[in-house]
């Protein structure tokens, strides 16, 4: 992951441009109307699809964001094919990721409250790496500890009080 730290803003913008062109082509094929917004956020190229038609947008998000995830993977491959380098590009559709982050933030705060009330660790349901990363960040901000356990696709996060976490159980940043 240190690879993106070495990329210039121009390189990240180039990745966003490549991604935008690719996604515009996909939207044309699917006959969806939509605007593409792009930029760099937190050192990562980002492309967002914004459409006027709610029906089209729902198809681009999919159930639990499955279509957004697939679009992101395909777009990353298209960028890699053009640049020869792996991209950590983020693809969003109509603010889906922002809403998802907020839900995850709320889940993390609920788990934190439970840990503080009971003093016992709390296991969350299995999540993908993006979701676990959001949880780990919130837990750390709140002064508690967290750790990922298990194997994909059943990998999950446990939230601990600092006193209950062993020194070797450092936050599992993904």
UniProtKB/TrEMBL annotation:
Name this protein carries in UniProt: R3H domain-containing protein
Database matches in InterPro entries: KH_dom-like_a/b (IPR015946), KhpB (IPR039247), R3H_dom (IPR001374), R3H_dom_sf (IPR036867), R3H_KhpB (IPR034079)
R3H domain ranges (all copies): 98-163
Superkingdom of the source species: Bacteria
Matching Gene3D superfamilies: 3.30.300.20, R3H-like domain
SUPFAM superfamilies (UniProt xref): R3H domain
CDD domains the record matches: R3H_jag
């Amino acid at each position: 992951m240190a690879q993106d730290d070495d990329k210039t803003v121009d390189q990240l913008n180039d990745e966003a441009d490549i991604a935008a062109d690719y996604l515009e082509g996909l939207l044309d094929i699917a006959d969806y109307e939509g605007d593409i917004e792009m930029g760099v956020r937190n050192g990562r190229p980002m492309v967002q699809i914004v459409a006027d038609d709610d029906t089209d947008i729902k198809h681009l998000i999919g159930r639990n964001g499955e279509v957004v995830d697939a679009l992101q993977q395909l777009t990353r491959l298209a960028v890699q094919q053009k640049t020869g380098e792996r991209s950590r590009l983020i693809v969003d559709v109509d603010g889906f990721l922002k809403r998802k982050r907020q839900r995850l933030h709320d889940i993390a705060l609920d788990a934190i409250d439970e840990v503080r009330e009971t003093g016992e660790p709390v296991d969350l349901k299995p999540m993908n790496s993006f979701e676990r990363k959001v949880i780990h960040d919130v837990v750390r901000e709140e002064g508690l500890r967290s750790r990922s356990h298990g194997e994909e696709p059943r990998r999950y996060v446990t939230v601990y009080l600092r006193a209950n976490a062993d020194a070797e159980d450092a936050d599992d940043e993904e």
